[in-house]
User: What shape does this take?
Amino acid sequence: MRSKEKVGPSAETEESRMETRIIVVTSGKGGVGKTTVTANLSARLAMEGYKVVAMDADIGLRNLDVVMGLENRIVFNMIDVLEGACKLPQALVKDKRVENLHLLPAAQTRTKDAVTSDQMKSLCDSLRGDFDFVLVDSPAGIESGFRNAAAGADEALVVATPEVSSVRDADRIIGLLESFGKRSINLIVNRVRPEMVRKGKMLGVNDVMEILAVDMIGIIPEDESVVISTNRGEPLTLTNPSPASKAFEKIAGRILGRDIPLQGLDELEEKGLLANFIRLFGRREGRG
Amino acid sequence: MTASSGKDKLELRGEGGHLRLIVPLGLKGKGIRAQAEDFLEKTAAILKGAPVVVDIEGEGWGRKDILSILENIVLPAGASVLLWSPEEDDVRSWMKREGFALLPTADEREAPKPVRPVAESLVVDESMRSGMRVDHDGDVTILGNVNEGAEVFAGRSVLVLGRLRGLAHAGLTVPEEALIVSGQFEASQVRIGDRISYMDAGCPWWGKTVSMKILDGSIVVREVIP
Assistant: This one.
């Protein structure tokens, strides 16, 4: 296993290589931020020097390529690999901004029935050994798409927003993951609005944890820079030191086994004079 | 043996090991008292110490009428009421509710309640997540929470040691004996037998330890104070 201090390809030796960790990012409910989490955590882990594949398992509704800004460079996709039209390395899109980051895109013109769980397992297994992390972006729902995405994964990151419907769906997904035998299931609570939580208008992180009863690995605050970065096709973690970006950095650290305490509500908010000015300016702009 | 004074008059018949006192509809109100003295004069010797089944004919009998039968006939004669036999369903219903011992009707005698074998208890030793469902003929005990979107169906009682947020339906086979007990009640709906109750966070027992059962046809909630 590679030790935490030895980061980057230059520090890597045969002995220090860690086993490939395949992590499915899932939620049940759509629109809670699975793709954003996959893109940003993949980028962050790659920036730490680990070899990462971000795999889009949302066949027919692929988005990970757009969020990562790699849509123009796709030649082959996952289905091409499974059907033997190309070799796996040919389908991997290498990110030019971060040396170790790769995307395995989904097919947009096929449906989720185009692959089976066994094919997904063998695809994931063929990535083992060559990469440190494979993050699989799961489609919403509990049907075959989700089952296929989870099939080859060893671990799961469940993304939920602090809404009753999202928590209920996450609970369903966690139950299914447990029934598949996935024992490492961690929770990310996304789009937390500290002000609303304080006013009792939004479920608190503790409420979500109490219901879902799995380990929490990170809290991501609501942050408009996520929308901007998504539209630009530039993962936040590559450029922007925003609250959400810091949250992704901490989550990546915890995935790597670092002891990083969870943030409180105060820490999730942007601090300082500049932030206050931006908030004030933003409000005025909104009123105008 | 028959002691009678004709239509709309009190009548006494011998029947097996007991007597049958027939009270016609026409005597409802003051009629019983009016006939009592004459009737007792003729039947006092027979009625004294005898167990009597009281037949109440017709509809509309109320508490005062029953009291009048006891005060004017049964008690002065030194008899005792073995069973009451009201003819009309509404009268049977309120007398049963108030605890009078009633003679079973022919239908009730012919259709004895089926004796169901009691199914074993089922213990679920984990919390139930959304989408999970337990269906069991006997009692069901959950050693954890029942989350929103999870469902428990039980022939008899449901006991949730943790928080109940999902659906509990108890008493599918034996509703009259079924209970729903929850360590922390936060469910928007509960069902016992064919009864459904809807609740929300405004209920005084929301978030508390409660037990629920059917009483007089309604689901009644009781806070359990440990």
Observations:
- Residues 31-47 of chain B form the longest helix (17 residues).
